[in-house]
Every structure is written in structure tokens, then in C-alpha cells.
Write a structure and sequence with these properties.
Length: 467
């Protein structure tokens, strides 16, 4: 094999082009100006690293950088969800377990862990008065004070209804199973391994102050900053644009020290549709999901008095963006972060990985490749890495899926209609391949061929005919 010396290596394109950087700066400048924000900082990560950051401020000569802390509100929920998924992956709980199994004594114990993660447990959106975001957490010393007298507003599992108290319960679940406070588990299991040393439950210098901007005049009022107590797992964290870029890279790529990529992909999978009339998107397990101009995004938005935040990522493009501001009703940082992803992904499309041959070939698997027929629908089967397979329609619409090998002659579906379904190679008594069985669907080498024994219902013995 030969390579052209004129071909650019991936490292040649690590930095954003000047025109892209200018477009990003213009977008955040408009957001800060129109949103009347005391300050705004944003950053973009691509292919595993932060490649751009910028800021705008109302104070001359004093712009924040990517290492200044802002309060990130409900982005905290994604951190809490990662802790819960770690417990699942360690076998310490199952997402189908009722909360009561691990955290007895709450009035919401019948809700499953998955329902709490996906906001489908039917719990209220907020804790009882006084407003928990502007009052000290010690006003709610017990979970009963967080849940109130009507812990269930909707039937569990039927409806997406965003619930801050639900994530307070998940934080207490982590404490019950781990035996340490939520914030200690977060620091030891997520923040330290990922190097997020500027993410904390309390503000650390340098950090932005939270402000309210008068709706009808260009004047400011400082907002209080409270320790949220039991509600902390729903919105306590302070972080920086740089740390959140690192966190977003982890959410795309995974890190075996924290959570594997397969579990993060599960978190990005829609668990439920939004409530009727809600925002256009969905919710996974601790992640908001959206589709912007055909691009699938995952992440989370956040707000607390004095702060708004947004983190969105496109796993397909390898691009993530963060936007943070210190105004109660300031820029729409969620929308802004999504638009920053869009700017980079459209201006500088991701280069596909170079084609490479498989490291080795299994002649028996190679013999399975090529056309297969489900009835008269023709599909093509090809080999992928690690003895995987892809089954795709060759004409018209169909149900393409990728498969992962789990045993001899057996694969499990990874996506699409056949996610989780089993694909098996069925052999004749003489050891030759008869057909493929995919969740009871039979795929044969010929469309209703003469070997009719494999086709459910059989094949007309007179075979194919003209009019």
C-alpha cells in the first residue's frame, strides 16, 4: 500500500478555521447583547478536545475565560445519572428496581429507578413551598419535606413530567447504596477521574456572581446563592466551560474508569416522549434529547436564580458546545449551545475515518455475506469489525440494523427495529447453512426458493409462475 504525501493528516484540522471562529464569536456576541447578560462564556469541543472558547461581558477589560465558574443548574442531573448508571453497571441495582428496594420509607418507593431517571415517575416538578432554588436546603431536612403531601401527580410510566424532587431521590439513592454522601461519591467517581477540578458543589474563585436584570430597565440586582441540601443532586453544581467540554467529550466517548461508552449510548436513547405541548425532543436517562435541522443532539440545560446554562453534543459529528451566563432570565443558553454545535458541524463537516481492511477474515463468516431475502425483500449482509454484522435493505425501505457477536452463530441487534433481538444462523443436518432467524423473521438465500422447509407457512409447490 502507498500513501500520498499531499494527504492531510487529521492533526492538520484540529484547530477551527478563522471563519468558523468568527461565526462562533458573532453568535455569542449577539446572544450576550440581546439577552442583556452581565457576562457570557462559551466553548466548543471537537473530536475529544476543546478547540474554541470565547466570552462577552458588560465590564470593559474583564472578560471571563473558560476557567471561570458559573452555576450550571440542572446539568447537575446528568452527573447524578452517571452515578446511578455506575451502580447499575456494577450490579448493585437494576433500572427496573423499585426505589423502595434500595431506599425504603419514601412515599415514592413504587417508582422504578428508570422512571426517576427519565422523569416518568409521575412526581411533582418542584418541592413544596418555599421555592427551593432561593431558600436554604436545611428548610427541607427530610425527603418527606422534598416530596410533600402529594408525591404522585400522574400514573408512573405513562407521562413525561419533569421532576426536580425525583433527582433528589436519586441522589439519596446513591448515598444509600454507596454509603457516602452524594457529593463525595461524585467527586471520587466522576470529577477526579475525568480531571474536572473546576467543578464543585460550592463556588470556588474565580467565579461569576449571579444577577437579575430588570425586565424594563438596564439595571441589575444580585441573586442569592443557596446550598440546596437534599435537592443538590438536581441542581447544585458550579462548573466552567472547559470542564463541561471535558464532561461532554466523556458523554460521547466514555471512559472505562467512570462509565463505558455503551452505557452512555443507553443514556442518550429516548426513554419517553415529552409531555403534551412540551419542547420538541425527548428525554433519555439523565439527558435531554433534541433534533435540530436533522442533527440529533443530547445534553442538558440548566438554570438557577442568577444563572442559565446549556450543554449540547452531537455524537455523530464529535462536536459539543457549552454556553454559560450569569443572568436569571438572560440568553437562551440551551438554544445558543445547540447553534454553536450546528455552526461547527456545518462549516467543518467531520472527516470520515479512512477505510481499512479488517485485521483478519473468518472464511465461515465471509460465506454468510451477500444477499438474503425476507420474503421478497432483499437485504445485504456485510461483515463489520470484531465479527459484527450489518443487515441492510438493498431496495426500497426496510429495517437496517447492526449486530454484535455474542456466541458462535449468534448476534445481538445494536440499533433500529432489531435492537436487542437475536440473529441466529440455522444449519441443516448436513451442517450447511439453511437460513437466518432474526427474532422469528426468516431470511433465505432465494426469495421463496425450492427449499421451503425454512419458510413459515411453506411455499406453493408449483413455484413461481407468469400471469
Amino acid at each position: 500500500m502507498t500513501s500520498s504525501s499531499s494527504a492531510a493528516s487529521p492533526s492538520s484540522f484540529e484547530e477551527l478555521l478563522p471563519a468558523t471562529q468568527r461565526a462562533l464569536l458573532h453568535r455569542i456576541a449577539v446572544a450576550q447583547s440581546e439577552g442583556r447578560a452581565p457576562s457570557l462564556v462559551a466553548a466548543v469541543a471537537r473530536d475529544g478536545r476543546m478547540v474554541w472558547s470565547g466570552s462577552r461581558t458588560s465590564v470593559d477589560g474583564h472578560g471571563p475565560d473558560a476557567d471561570v465558574q458559573y452555576r450550571v443548574g440542572s446539568i447537575t442531573k446528568t452527573f447524578t445519572a452517571v452515578l446511578v448508571m455506575r451502580l447499575r453497571d456494577e450490579g448493585l441495582l437494576d433500572l427496573a428496581d423499585p426505589l423502595e428496594k434500595h431506599l425504603p420509607g419514601t412515599s415514592a418507593g413504587g417508582a422504578t429507578i428508570a422512571q426517576l431517571l427519565s422523569h416518568t415517575a409521575g412526581l411533582p416538578a418542584e418541592a413544596p413551598s418555599p421555592w427551593w432554588e432561593r431558600t436554604p436546603g436545611d428548610l427541607r431536612p427530610e425527603l418527606a419535606d422534598v416530596l410533600g403531601g402529594q408525591p404522585r401527580l400522574h400514573p408512573a410510566g405513562r407521562l413525561h413530567h419533569y421532576s426536580n424532587p425525583g433527582y433528589a431521590l436519586l441522589g439519596s439513592l446513591v448515598e444509600a447504596v454507596r454509603g457516602v454522601p452524594w457529593d463525595e461519591a461524585l467527586r471520587a467517581e466522576v470529577l477526579e477521574p475525568l480531571g474536572l477540578d473546576r467543578t464543585s458543589t460550592q463556588p470556588e474563585h474565580p467565579h461569576a456572581g449571579g444577577w437579575a436584570v430588570h425586565p424594563w430597565a438596564d439595571v441589575l440586582l444580585p441573586e442569592p446563592s443557596q446550598d440546596l441540601g437534599l435537592m443538590a443532586p438536581a441542581g447544585q453544581l458550579w462548573s466552567t466551560a472547559r470542564d463541561l467540554c471535558r464532561f461532554a467529550v466523556f458523554l460521547i466517548e466514555g471512559d472505562e474508569r467512570v462509565l463505558r461508552a455503551e452505557s452512555l449510548a443507553e443514556m442518550r436513547t429516548p426513554a419517553v416522549a415529552p409531555e403534551p405541548g412540551g419542547w420538541e425532543g425527548g428525554y433519555g436517562l439523565g439527558m435531554q434529547l433534541a433534533c435540530a435541522k436533522g442533527r440529533e443532539l443530547a445534553g442538558h440545560t440548566g438554570s438557577l436564580p442568577g444563572f442559565v446554562a446549556g450543554l449540547w453534543m452531537s455524537a455523530a459529528d464529535g462536536v459539543a458546545a457549552v454556553a454559560l451566563s450569569n443572568a436569571t432570565s438572560g440568553p437562551l443558553c440551551g438554544t445558543l449551545a445547540a447553534e454553536l454545535v450546528q455552526i461547527v458541524a456545518e462549516a467543518e463537516p467531520r472527516l470520515p475515518e479512512p477505510w481499512r481492511p479488517l485485521p483478519e477474515v473468518d472464511e465461515r463468516l465471509l460465506g454468510l455475506t451477500g444477499p438474503w431475502y425476507w420474503g421478497t425483500h432483499v437485504y445485504g449482509l456485510r461483515l463489520t469489525a470484531d465479527q459484527g454484522m450489518a443487515l441492510e435493505p438493498l431496495r426500497g425501505s426496510g429495517r437496517p440494523s447492526r449486530f454484535r457477536a455474542v456466541a458462535d452463530d449468534t448476534w445481538i441487534g445494536l440499533d433500529g427495529y432489531h435492537r436487542g433481538e437475536t440473529l441466529r444462523v440455522v444449519l441443516r443436518p448436513d451442517g450447511t447453512v439453511s437460513h437466518l432467524d432474526l427474532g422469528s423473521f426468516v431470511f433465505t438465500r432465494e426469495p421463496y426458493g425450492p427449499d421451503a422447509s425454512a419458510v413459515p407457512g411453506g411455499v406453493d409447490p408449483d413455484g413461481w409462475r407468469g400471469v
